[in-house]
C-alpha cells in the first residue's frame, strides 16, 4: 500500500481542508516529517490509519475524538485518502459521528458516521464499490488483508512503543504478539482440550453416580441383600450374586400366586354365568308387564278410531259436491267484476260532461285577449334594436374586469408564494430534524438481524434436540418392553428345562422295565448274563415315551433361541439408547455454543420463547428497514423542496412584472366603458340582463299564442271523450243483467245436490270437507291401530304361556359373592404385579450396571489421554510454557532472526537479540523475554541493561523485523510505506549513520519511508522534508524539496 494523496478537514490540529500530495516527492523514497511538538506530525499517520480503518494510530484516540478544536462549527470532520496497491488505485472517504450546527435555527444535530470506497480507473472515472461503514470495513479487509493492529505495526513505529516491547515480560509480549499473529486459535485449542477433559471427568462422575443410584434403587427382599447393600465399601460381586438368588425366590413365589389367581378366576366366571341368566329372566318378566300396559292403552283409543271412520264416509260424500260449488263461486266473482265495471262507466260519463263545460269556458276567455298579444310583439322589437351596443359594452366591461382580476391574482399569487416559501423553510427544518432522528436505525437493523440469525440457529438446535429426545424416549419404552419379554422368556426356559430334566430322569428310570419285557426264562440277561429272573423290573403306566422326551428337549431349544433373540434385541436397544444419550450430550454442547441451554422438560415452551424472540427481532428489523426507507423518502423530499424553493423565488419576480403591466392596461380600458354606459338604460346594460329581457319578451308573446291554441284543442278533445263515455255505459248495463241470470240457475243446481247426499245444510257440508291427503291419513290411522292391537294381543298371549309360574330371582346375593371374589383377585393381582416389578427391576439394574461398567472403562481410558494433553498444553510441563506461547515463541524467533540482521549492522557486530529459554522461578510465566548478547564480553544480559542509544537501536531493529515478519505472515501483502516516530536524538553521529544506513536499505527496496524527527542531521542528510507549521488558527503542511 502506497499513499498518493491525503486530505484532512477539521481533523486533529488541522482546522481547514489540508491536502498532502505525496506525488510531489516524485522518485524520492525517504522524507523527514518535521515540526514543533504538538504541531500534528503523528496526526498525518493518524489520518491515514483513520481513513483506512476508522481508527487512529494510537489505541487511546477514537475516531470521534479527533475533531479539530480550531475548526468552525459549520465544517464537518472528514478524511479521504488516495492510495495504490498491487497496480490498482483507490480512494477512501470517512467521517466520524459528530455534532453539526443547524443551518436554520439554534442548536446542533448529530450526523452519523459515513464511509465510501471508490476504485480509480485509468480514464479518470471513479467506481463506487462500498457506500457505508460496514461495507467499507469488509472491502478494506478484503483488499488490504490485514487488520488495524497489523497495519500499525508494519507501517508505523511510534514513540517509545518498541522500547516497551523490547523490555516487557513474557505476559505483556504475549498480548502484543497474540494480536499481531492472531494466535487466539491456539488458545482455543487449550480451551477445547480443557472443555473436553472437564466433560469427560463429568461423564465419569455421572456414570459412577448413575451406577450408585441403580444399586441404591434395589428393593431388598431378604435380610442378606439388605445387609450387603448397607456394607461400606459395597461388594458389587456379592450383590450381583445375591440378586440372582432373589430373582429365583421371587419366581417361585410368582408361580404360587398365579395358581391361586387361576382358581379364583374360574369361580368368578361361574358366578358371572349365573348372574347373566338371572338378569335375562328379569328382563323377560318386565317385557310381559310392558305388553299388558300397552294393550290397556289401545283399548282406551277405540272410540276415537270409530269417529275417524265416520269422518272418512262424510268426506267422500262431500267430494261429489265440490265441482258444482266451484262453478257457483266462479260465476259470483265474474258478477262482482261486471258490477264494478258498470260503476266505473257511469263515473266516466259524468266526468266527461264536466270536462266539456270547463274547456268551452277556457276557449272563450283566451279568444278575448287579442290586444295583449299585439303589445307583447311591439316590446320585443324595441329591445332587439339595442342588441349591438349592449354586446359591445359587455365585452369592454369583461376585459376591464379581467385586467383588474389579473392584477389581483398576481398580487395574491405573490402573497401565496411568500407564504409557501415560509412553509417550505419550516418543512425543510423539520425534515432535517427527522432525518437526524433516524441516524441510529442502521445499527439497530444490523443488531436485530444478528438476533434473528441467533434465534434461527437456536430453534434448529432445539428442533434437533426434540427429535433426538423423542427417539430416546421411544427406545427407552421399547427397552422396558423387551426387558419384560426377556424375563418371561427366561422364566419359560427355566420351566421347560426343569420339565425336560424330569422327563429325561423318568425315562431313564424306565429303561430297566423295557429291557425286562424282553427277558425269557432260561435265557441269559443282556445286562447281567443270569438265566434266572426272579424279580424283573416293571414299567409304570405314566412313564414317558422317547418322543415325549425329545419333544421336551426340542421345546427347550426353541425357548433358548427365543431367549437369546430377546437378549440380542435388548442389547441392540441398549446400544441405541446409549447412542441417543451421547447425541443428547453432543446437542447440549451445540446448544451451549449457540448461546443457550436445552430445557428437556419444557422444550415446547422454550421453542415458543425462541419463536417469540425471532418474531420480535423480525419485527424490530422490519421496523428498522421501514425507518431507513422513511429516511430515504425524507432525503428525496428535502432535495425536491430545495428545488421547489428556488423555483418559487423566480416565480415571485415574474409575477411582480405581470402585475404592473395589468394595472396600466386597466386604466386605458376604463375610459371606453364610460361612453357606452351613457347610451344604454341601466336595467339592460349587462349582457345577461339584456338577454334575459329579450327572452322574457319572446316568452310572453309565445305564451299568449300557445294558450289560445291549447284552449281550442282541449274543447275538441272533451267533445270526443263525452260521446265515447255514453256508449260504454250502455254496454256495461246489458252485460250485468246477463251475468245475474246465469248465477241464479247454478245455485239452484248446488242446493239440489246437497239434499241428495244427505247434508242438513251448507255448514254441515263445509264441516265434512276433507282433502284427499287428510282422508288417506285418517284411513292409515285406523289401519295402523288395528294392526298394532292384533300384534300386542298375540305377543301378550305367547309371553303369558311361557312365563306361567316363574318368579323373579334374587340378584343381590349373587352380586355380593362376586364382589368378594373380585376383591380377592385384585389383591392377588397386586401381589403378582409387585413381584413382576421386582424381577423386572432387578434384571434392569443388572443390565444397566454392566453397561455402565463397560462405558466407564472406555471413558476413564479416554480421560487419561485428553486430561494429559490438556495439562501439557496449559503449561504444566517441564518448561512451564503453554501451547499458544510455544507458537508465539516460534514467531518471536523469526522476528529476532530478521531484527538481528539490522542490529548487527547498527552496532558494528557487537549486539544480537536472543530469546530467554530458561525456566522462570516459581510459577512465573516464561518463554518470551529477551536477552542481549554482547560480543565484547561473550555473555548474555537482560535488554533492560542497554543504554538509551543502544535501546533505540535494538528497538528500531526489533520494529523493522516485526514489520517484515508480520507482512510475511499476512500473506506477503505489499505495504510499500513506513513511518518511524522514534528518538533519533539519543544517537551519536556514528549510530545515527548506522540507523540511516539500515533505513536506506529499506527504502532501497522501493518502500516509502517517512521519519518523524527533530534531529537537524536528518534534515541535512535527507533531501525531502514535509514541514508541519503550527499557527494560532490551526496547522498546515508544505513539502521542502532540495
Automatic annotation (TrEMBL):
Superkingdom in the source lineage: Bacteria
Any one Gene Ontology BP term: double-strand break repair
Coiled-coil annotated spans: 190-434, 465-506, 545-658, 687-862
InterPro entries found in the cross-reference section: P-loop_NTPase, Rad50/SbcC_AAA
GO molecular function, one term: exonuclease activity
Swiss-Prot/TrEMBL keywords: Coiled coil, Exonuclease, Hydrolase, Nuclease
Domain (Rad50/SbcC-type AAA) ranges: 5-231
Subunit structure of this chain's protein: Heterodimer of SbcC and SbcD.
Family, as annotated: Belongs to the SMC family. SbcC subfamily.
Protein name: Nuclease SbcCD subunit C
Lineage: Bacteria, Bacillati, Bacillota, Bacilli, Bacillales
